[in-house]
Amino acid sequence: MQVLLVEDHTDTRTVLGTLLNRCGCRTVTAKNVRDARSRLEEMRFDVLISDLNLPDGDGIDLVKEAKRAQQLKAIAITGRCSDEERDEGLRAGFDCYLTKPIDFQQLREALKNKGAQATP
Length: 120
Fold this sequence. Notes:
This is Response regulatory domain-containing protein. It is a single chain. By secondary structure, this protein is of the alpha/beta class. It has a single domain (2-112), classed as Rossmann fold. Helices cover 44% and strands 24% of the residues. The protein has five helices and seven strands. It has helices at residues 10-22, 33-42, 59-69, 83-92, 104-112, and strands at 2-6, 26-30, 47-51, 53-54, 57-58, 73-78, 96-99. The chain has a five-stranded parallel β-sheet with strand order 2-1-3-6-7, sandwiched between helices. The chain has a two-stranded antiparallel sheet with strand order 4-5. Helix 2 packs parallel to helix 3. The chain is globular, with a radius of gyration of 12 Å. The two termini are 24 Å apart.
């Protein structure tokens, strides 16, 4: 499974990328929206995993762009935990919405389903 992981926090990006690779994913990372756009232009992905609060934009806008450009599943990883924010993310195109701190087992389950479920 080809995964694009978009996370601005260096330690979180490194740890999640390592764990995803150990689970058999081929993980490409991006630290912001600009980097993610470049990766999406260069490669095809099965899954986008993205933070919502990025230094140069919003994961909500990114998922909309990504889904217009590629047929992929999308998983939000975020500190935004209200029902309204979750609903906004799902309406925008995220197939699964996970709040930080991330439970890696939940993320693995979402990947098994390629993100095809909403997680409260």
